[in-house]
Amino acid sequence: MSIASFFSQDPGILLFGARCASILFGLLAVYFSIKISKLLFKGTARWIFIVLMSLIPQFIFLCSYVNNDIACVCCSLVISYGWIRALREGWSGKNCLYLAIGVAGCLLSYYNGYAWVLLSIVFFFGICWIKKTGVAFILKRATLSLCVVLVLAGGFVVRNAILYDGDVLGSSSSEESGLLYADTTIIMPDSAHELGYSLTDVLTGQVPDYLSLSNWIKITVKSFFGTFGYMSDWLPSPIYYLYVAIFAVGIGCFTISLLTKLLTKQNIQKTTVLLYVCLLFVFAITLAIDLHFSIFTSYQPQGRYLYPALLPIVLVVSKGYDCALSKVKNGFVRNSMTLVFCFAFFILACYVALFHFFPNAIG
User: How many other CB atoms are there within 10 angstroms of residue 191's CB atom?
Assistant: First the structure.
């Protein structure tokens, strides 16, 4: 937006400039998805991960409007790329830079992404412990990472502390600005707590129909896959059932594969365990933050609030399909099944875009 302002002060041009930032972050997210897939998957199986990451309708929608969601997704992928490289190489200077840049980006983007910041600390020292890294080396790499984070994000924290009386993350000031500049014709929902409802009520859909957002789980799942406009343009129910089925089958296959390895006492590398445990906590913390926001701040079940945990979800689903397809011994048949799956997912995304997203956007 700042760059666009050099050429024009027209509100439409400025909005387009702001949207270009989201498009750029979306392209970077896809780029790092491709990079990550090369490290975690073999052969054509990596395209399952790439397609699932980049062709969910809601992901595409987030790349087209002004918000920090897609920036947070991009930064989480940068962090993940640093994590996965560190599994093999340890904390080289380059891997520390990936980690630090991603952490700084998460700090500057969205509070829902702070789980990545916390778990990056755990993962950093976890890798050092597994690889028996020396104390001197750990201090050097930790100092390097911290310095990069401070250079990239420290100014934001200091600025907020000075301007907003110690509100280093700017959360209170952001809320005050929202109240000051909000469109008064739009009534924002109260929190579930203010309405007199508990966590159990929220999860079981006992909150009354409030702005058509009563069933927290149902609305969150639907809008995770695709809800456009101001949470007003919904897809047909069969489309949601199809997306849920695709992800549920992948998660089921992953669970079966994991249980099989545990029951047969197959060797699982410590670094792999560390990676998946950290990703599990990223998902759990992101979900907890989302629920906390709906219960105590503003009751808004929106799937985009879970997008900081998009990578853990998609990785588990992709690994599930990879494990299932690995049972097919014929390489040609296996690769053909993989490509058919990816092509079908692409066609589904095109259908949603052509018959639901674009018509609503234009209309």
Answer: 16
